[in-house]
Amino acid sequence: MKNILIEHNIHWLDKKYDLKYRDYDINIKNTNKITVITGLRRVWKSSIVKQIIDNIEVNKFNKFYVNFFEWRIEKYKNIDWLEEIFQTYLREFYEKYWDKEEYIYLFFDEIQEVDFWYKWILWKYETDYYKIKFIITWSNADLLSSDIWTYLVGRHNSYNIKPLNLKEFCIWNEFSLDFNNINLEKNKFLNLCEQYFINWWLPEVVLWEKIFNNLIEDILYRDIIKRYRIKQEKDIKNILYYLLENFSTNYSYNSLVKSIWSSNENTIKEYISYFKKSFLLDEIEKIDYSFEKRLKSNKKTYLVDHALWFYYSLWEKLWLILENLVYNIIKKTWKVYYSWDKYEVDFVVIDSKKNLKWIYQVCYDIKNKNTFDREVNSLLYIAKKYKIKNNLFIITYSEEKELEIDDYKISILPFWKLELDML
Q1: What does the pLDDT read at residue 20?
Q2: Higher pLDDT residue, 396 or 356?
Q3: Quick one: which of 104, 99, 148 has its CA closest to 125?
């Protein structure tokens, strides 16, 4: 066990983890709460944890990291063994080299692999002799539900890690993302934007494309079929592949039953909830002030990364990539709906006070007059309906201009400018 722990904690040997930078400000020094890091597999949650280990300035032996997916650790899957691992760390490392004035920083990666881990952490958090700060990761949002929630409520700060954003993608490609540099090297920047738009955002896929072939199967079996004991594997796979290939298309649960020729409405709702909890996709509702009408409305799905669609679809539709990208940009801050009345509008966004605040229409190219008129008319229709004269946007691939029509102000922006504004 001692040698395994040394291999997990190379910082004890004065080595750096030397990983690609991820742009997340996770504050663990100024809080005593448990830090929870969640997200889709392959978004580099472990790398962010190791980035924190590299950067936090405390005695190196006050930082203890364990990855519970590691095959030699897999057998330690109950809280008795968790305590044994902790006691080994204290006995062999911490108590020999400790800084008693500092906290112990415990980094437990993929903690869901340990049965009843939350009881052990709460026990240490509430009662232990040592001053401990916990940083834990997992790959399924369901772990913040049911009985686990009762243990962590009020005691944790949660961070959901996303695929690469444009800023990170540029940094990885050694391009400084400030407006002066963008203006000086506009062609290079636009070339990077094109790569970012077309290619994947998942960090490991950006670096090693070959791992993507197994990603969805890994998520499906590890995080869904195994976790929820799914017996109808063919049905759940068909539903997932259908949603991946038909994202942004509105549907009812009954229409999914008819399209896939399997399961029933309740089962499909259940399966989609598993996809959402595993961070594969989001489901949005049609905007309405009535909760009941929103609940009964047709839904749309959007993918956490359009690479998931490339892998299972035979088509390359650039406007769908753009729509999915825009959704992922604007969802970071506010609640997103779609509108479908006389006209279809891609996204309407409410603020924290539940006021409808922003309206987005997405169109790859609006040079054609008929296309331009269609997009503008759709935007104006919903703006007039909800009495909004500002914060109206048409997001395109590359076009940019400002319009004012009957006191309604419309901003036409390229997707990269929208994302930079949101960072």
Answers
A1: 76
A2: 396
A3: 104
Please tell me the distance from the alpha carbon of residue 255 to that of residue 25, in angstroms, as a whole number. Answer: 42
pLDDT of residue 410 exceeding 60:
yes
Number of CB atoms found within 10 A of residue 92's CB? 15
At 166-207, the pLDDT tens digits run 888 888 888 888 777 888 898 999 999 988 887 756 665 555
pLDDT at 62: 92
Using alpha carbons, select from 141, 178, 175 the residue that is nearest to residue 159. Answer: 141
- Tell me how long the chain is: 423
**By C-alpha distance, which of 146, 158, 122 is closest to 36?**
158
| Nearest by Cα to 328 from 195, 418, 224, 228 | 418
Identify any residues that bridge with 161 across adjacent strands, giving them in sequence order.
39
What is the side-by-side order of every strand in the sheet holding 344-350? 335-340, 344-350, 356-362, 392-396, 408-414, 401-405
Q: Which residue has the tokens 């390359």?
A: 316
Element (H, E) at 202: none
pLDDT for 264 beyond 90: no
Question: How confident is the model at residue 94, as a pLDDT?
Answer: 78
Q: State CA 395 to chain mean position distance.
A: 22
Q: What value, to the nearest 5°, has the Cα angle with vertex 157 and ends 155 and 161?
A: 145
Query: The tokens of 294 are what?
Result: 């929103």
**What number of other Cβ atoms are within 10 A of residue 65's Cβ?**
23
Residue in this structure with the two tokens 């809280």, named with its chain if needed? 79
Cα–Cα distances in Å, from 5 out to 1, 44, 68, 77, 133?
6, 21, 11, 16, 19
CB 307 within 8 A of CB 200: yes
pTM, whole model, 2 decimals? 0.85
Of 106-115, 120-129, 142-151, 175-184, the least confident: 142-151
Distances (CA, A) of 34 to 29, 57, 102, 287: 11, 19, 17, 36
Q: Which residues contact 271 (CB under 8 A, 6 or more apart)?
A: 235, 236, 239, 240, 263
**What are the structure tokens assigned to 43, written together?**
């978004």
Neighbour-count burial of 116, counting CB atoms closer than 10 A to its CB (0-12 exposed, 13-18 middle, 19+ buried): middle
List pLDDT tens digits, range 332-353.
Answer: 878 899 998 889 999 999 887 7
Q: Which residue has the higher pLDDT, 212 or 49?
A: 49
Query: Strand pairing partners for 338?
Result: 286
